[in-house]
Specification:
With 193 residues, this protein is mainly alpha-helical. The protein has a single domain, classed as Up-down Bundle (Ferritin). The chain has 7 helices and no strands. GO terms for molecular function: tRNA 2-(methylsulfanyl)-N(6)-isopentenyladenosine(37) hydroxylase activity. It comes from Flavobacterium aciduliphilum.
């Protein structure tokens, strides 16, 4: 369904589970950044009522996820660490096309967001199916469903609002790039690492 070119090796879940404090802290920050992204889209496209309405819902939901992960961190006696730069996301930023019209920028931002949500969804599926911690396995199963909804929302808006961009062609370029990029990851206790 997601169209990802390379699946995560299930053994990555063992790496993640070996340091739950680290993966949960990283995940918490990912949720905060996802909320910020939705707010960024609102800020730059405030005239589009439908888009603003849906992005507001996503921003709220992402912050609810942030709170849920933060609550797990506290309940387990872990320390909520500082945010660490996400090299995977930074590489996606570099791949993003710059310039063009405001509409071009919107479509690129929506595809960027869809890509991150697709990979996060896939990673949460791997966690839900492969970690021994039953509470977290169930938690990641729930979040996987939410991420899938966000992925389709971003992708569908890109298709709906594109004025000149061939969204299917560009989405396939994103998928190809991400497939090559993700082959360098899956070795760290981070959502995209």
């Amino acid at each position: 369904m997601l169209g990802l070119k390379l699946k995560t090796d299930p053994r990555w879940a063992n790496i993640a589970e070996s340091n739950l404090e680290e993966i949960l802290t990283d995940h918490c920050w990912c949720e905060q950044k996802a909320a910020s992204n939705a707010l960024y889209i609102i800020t730059n496209n405030s005239e589009n009522e439908e888009l603003v309405t849906e992005m507001a819902k996503i921003a709220i939901e992402e912050m609810q996820h942030f709170q849920m992960v933060h609550d797990i961190i506290k309940a387990r006696g872990y320390e909520f660490g500082r945010e660490v730069k996400d090299d995977y996301v930074n590489q996606l930023v570099k791949f993003s096309k710059k310039g063009g019209t405001r509409n071009d920028a919107l479509i690129e931002r929506l595809l960027f967001a869809a890509m991150i949500e697709a990979r996060s969804c896939e990673r949460f599926k791997v966690l839900s199916e492969n970690i021994q911690d039953k509470e977290l396995a169930a938690f990641y199963r729930e979040l996987m469903i939410s991420e899938a909804h966000h992925y389709t929302t971003f992708l569908n808006f890109a298709r709906k609002f594109s004025e000149k961009v061939d969204v299917e062609k560009r989405w396939n370029e994103w998928l190809e790039f991400e497939g090559e990029l993700i082959s360098n990851y899956g070795k760290k206790e981070t959502v995209h690492g």
